[in-house]
Amino acid sequence: MIRAINTLLVPIPTIRAHKLACTVMNAQTLVLVHIQTEDGFEGWGEATTIGGLSYAEESPHSIKTNIDTYITPLLLQDQPTSSAKAMQLINRQISGNRFAKCAIETALLDIEGKRLGVPVSELIGGRVRDRLEVAWTLASGNTETDIAEAKAMVEQKRHRIFKLKIGGRAIKDDVDHVLAIKDALPNCRITVDVNQAWSELEAMSGIKALENGGIDLIEQPISMRNQAGLKRLSQRFDVAIMADEIVQDPQNAFGLAADHSADVFAVKINQAGGLKAAALIGQLAHLNGIELYGGTMLEGPIGTAASAHVFATFPSLAFDTELFGPLLLTDDVLATPLNYQDFGLIVPTKAGLGIEVDCEKVYYYANKALNLVDTKTLKLA
User: Fold this and answer.
1) CATH 3.20.20.120 occupies which residues in the chain?
2) CB < 8 Å & 24+ apart, contacts of 335-339
């Protein structure tokens, strides 16, 4: 039986400003769910979004409020005996709230995996890979700064795939910025994310220039509301066009895949509404000949570990992943950080999510955000 469910807002500064077309981030607020059972197990989940309400309809504060007000009382009252029954109950009585549902399901799967002694990946289809190549997003907005940052990453064997956030400037300025970086990194894969910033007409101009410059992948160039336009762009250009914000859950992913509205799907566990939903989207895309990309909402290490378990089960992963979220933060909430090496992330192999959360640090940051502790009295490792 579930003994307690705690939802925590854990704000952690980023190592540098992270600029998107829709916002600029200087910190990330992790929404962490901590579930404890009567028989001594505990599980962790994460529902992290980008830039408050500037990116999607759920914000850290709304996620916490809806978990505390609706989901927690429901689970404590009904006491479902498995994650599957819990999610069936939640989905039957609570509409939307995909991010909140993802955090709850992740924590419950973490507990189930620990109870059974198997990794979460084995509960959602079984892994076919133990390592995931990880892209790094260059988002300072300054060409020379981005080039220096990328070269340092290659030298350290941290990353050799780089994504550029564009769409906030004139198209020519953005294209010049991207192609200068491409020229400086001839042996690296360069992709761009427009975050829906272009009109379809602007996209035709921008994509043509980027394609001619050798860019490998273009993510969500136009509004998620323009599915027909996204399909037209995919058919018009040879460079791969990736659907991101438009891919929201298995139901709408089914329609997108059947219509072949994009060449690639970015799959995100929070955006999908949970780990099992994300795994299903991956299968739907694969069956329809659409390539896959392991996306991120810039989750911390808990959400990143959960994502890694899902992406490890994908039958193909042609465009790799973007699971760099923990590396963007100035502190880690795990006792032992995730294992990044040789341009990739090693998928945890221990039971559950395969991670050990530093509870003291998590609750320190959560309390600090509420001004409930004197920060001078605590020392962090």
Assistant:
1) 123-346
2) 337/301, 338/301, 338/304, 338/305, 338/308
Distances in whole angstroms, Cα of residue 209 to Cα of each of 97, 178, 204: 38, 10, 9
Q: Is the CB of residue 21 less than 8 Å from the CB of residue 166? A: yes
Say how far apart CA 130 and CA 237 lie, in whole Å: 33
Percent of the chain with pLDDT over 70: 95
| Cα 56 from Cα 248, distance rounded (Å) | 11
Q: What is 295-320 written as a DSSP string?
A: --S---HHHHHHHHHHHTT-S--TT-
Closest CA relative to residue 59, chosen from 72, 71, 45, 48: 48
Average pLDDT across the chain, whole number: 93
- Name the residue with tokens 């004139």: 170
Cβ distance 144 to 332 under 8 Å?
no
- Residues composing the chain: 381
- Collapse the DSSP code of 123 into the 3-class scheme (helix H, G, I; strand E, B; otherwise coil) and give the result: helix
Q: What is the pLDDT of residue 97?
A: 96
Q: Contact 281/292 with Cβ under 8 angstroms?
A: no
- Secondary element (H or E) of residue 251: helix 250-258
Provide CATH 3.30.390.10 ranges for the chain.
Answer: 2-118+357-375
Spans of the chain below 50 pLDDT? 373-381
The token pair at 281 is 């989207």
Task: Report pLDDT for 27.
Answer: 85
How far, in Å, CA of 145 to CA of 168, rounded? 17
**Enzyme catalytic residues:** 165
Contact at 8 Å (CB) between 138 and 164?
Answer: yes
d(Cα 221, Cα 237) in Å, to the nearest integer?
13
Q: In terms of CATH architecture, what is 2-118+357-375?
A: 2-Layer Sandwich (3.30)
Report how far residue 166's alpha carbon sits from residue 218's, in angstroms, rounded to the nearest whole number: 10
Architecture of the domain defined by 123-346: Alpha-Beta Barrel (3.20)
Amino acid at 5: I
Cβ-contact 119, 354 below 8 angstroms: yes
Contacts of 204 (CB under 8 A, 6+ apart): 233, 236
